[in-house]
Inverse folding.
């Protein structure tokens, strides 16, 4: 019975994320139209004008776009932290060996994507962007699986969700390292002190209350921004420190806010690519585009599948119930869909090379589109073959495998 509220929260999370993914796509299209209509200078005029909110933090929140990326996106990262906690308690991460598979797959996919990117950009101006193609977009990937419907086993959805969460957390760590601007040690010492206090409060006095973690994340946000580190990381800390008993209450507010407000605004602020050959004209832009696009497909599929196969063969992980290797390959392709966190990484890494941000965004759009088409095609083929072969004979040692009823 204790898992009931968590299961209901998981269903709400998936439902909201699927709908939010569709809304994010609409916002992205709107941004593209806005940035390319006559008088398109209005798009950068709105999102790139100067602000002065946090002393010493112009690089993080010095523009409306920066405020969205570094401020509003803290809510998104709060949801990621909360979701990770629930998956560990009552989801795909509850069983140790099953939990190991998406984590290993996420690491393999991140390594594969980074290596493919570096193959295009080593020695080039865009080499610092190796962290851009790493993360899987939770909202859009779940929306893609929803479009594929009954072709996708339920276990794939749980596996992909856990993998995407691990991807995002790994990318957050990369963002903290590669996306940092000029650091201000005194502010960072203050941020570390606040975080240590929040951990002590969580362990000794917080009980089942959420407000100490949420309120305490506000000074942490300001200190990270002033210290030159991406301030949205404060959301991850807040989510990790919210007690399990209070997580559901926080999610009821945070998940709809993230998926129906924060992510669409994020897409509107960041997806306004100027569709022109000039996007790829600056030095290094071609390598950034090619590296991001191919990393989203080849790097993810080969990295996730290869690492997962190795982990299962060595006995450290197992496939989720109802999931076969072909499903995992299809899911690995869908895991190549990514825009939200990758754009955040791109805008942080290329603060002093803004001409490369557009190439990275174009590569993310192209790579994500190919990843979706590839994943959808694989699942469609696998489903047709399973239906055509029919169920295994009763009593066969393989009777529970490749059963089209199980897969649908």
């Amino acid at each position: 019975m204790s898992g009931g509220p968590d299961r209901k929260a998981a269903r709400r999370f998936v439902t909201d994320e699927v709908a939010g993914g569709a809304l994010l796509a609409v916002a992205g299209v709107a941004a593209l139209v806005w940035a390319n209509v006559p008088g398109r200078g209005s798009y950068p005029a709105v999102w790139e004008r100067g602000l002065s909110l946090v002393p010493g933090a112009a690089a993080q929140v010095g523009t409306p776009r920066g405020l969205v990326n570094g401020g509003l996106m803290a809510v998104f990262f709060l949801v990621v932290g909360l979701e990770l906690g629930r998956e560990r308690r009552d989801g795909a991460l509850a069983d140790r060996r099953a939990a190991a598979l998406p984590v290993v797959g996420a690491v393999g996919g991140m390594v594969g994507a980074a290596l493919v990117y570096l193959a295009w950009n080593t020695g080039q101006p865009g080499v610092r962007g190796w962290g851009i193609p790493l993360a899987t977009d939770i909202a859009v990937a779940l929306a893609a699986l929803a479009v594929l419907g009954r072709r996708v086993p339920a276990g794939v959805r749980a596996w992909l969700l856990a993998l995407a969460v691990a991807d995002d957390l790994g990318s957050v760590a990369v963002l903290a390292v590669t996306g940092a601007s000029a650091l201000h040690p005194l502010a960072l010492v203050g941020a570390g002190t606040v975080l240590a206090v929040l951990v002590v409060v969580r362990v000794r006095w917080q009980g089942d209350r959420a407000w100490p973690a949420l309120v305490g994340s506000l000074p942490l946000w300001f200190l990270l921004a002033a210290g030159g580190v991406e301030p949205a990381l404060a959301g991850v800390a807040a989510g990790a420190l919210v007690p399990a008993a209070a997580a559901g209450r926080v999610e009821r507010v945070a998940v709809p806010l993230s998926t129906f407000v924060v992510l669409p605004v994020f897409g509107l602020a960041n997806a306004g690519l100027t569709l022109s050959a000039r996007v790829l004209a600056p030095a290094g832009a071609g390598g950034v585009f090619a590296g991001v696009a191919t990393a989203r497909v080849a790097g993810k599929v080969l990295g996730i599948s290869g690492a997962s196969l190795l982990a299962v063969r060595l006995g450290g992980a197992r496939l989720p119930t109802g999931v076969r290797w072909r499903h995992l390959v299809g899911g690995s392709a869908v895991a190549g869909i990514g825009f939200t966190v990758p754009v955040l990484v791109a805008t942080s890494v290329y603060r002093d090379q803004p001409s490369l941000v557009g190439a990275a965004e174009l590569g993310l759009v192209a790579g994500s589109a190919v990843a979706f088409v590839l994943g959808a095609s694989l699942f469609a083929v696998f489903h047709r073959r399973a239906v055509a072969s029919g169920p295994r004979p009763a009593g066969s040692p393989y009777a529970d495998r490749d059963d089209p009823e199980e897969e649908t």
In short: The chain has one domain: 4-389+402-407. Residues 392-408 have pLDDT under 50 and may be disordered. The chain has 16 helices and no strands. Residues 355-389 form the longest helix (35 residues).
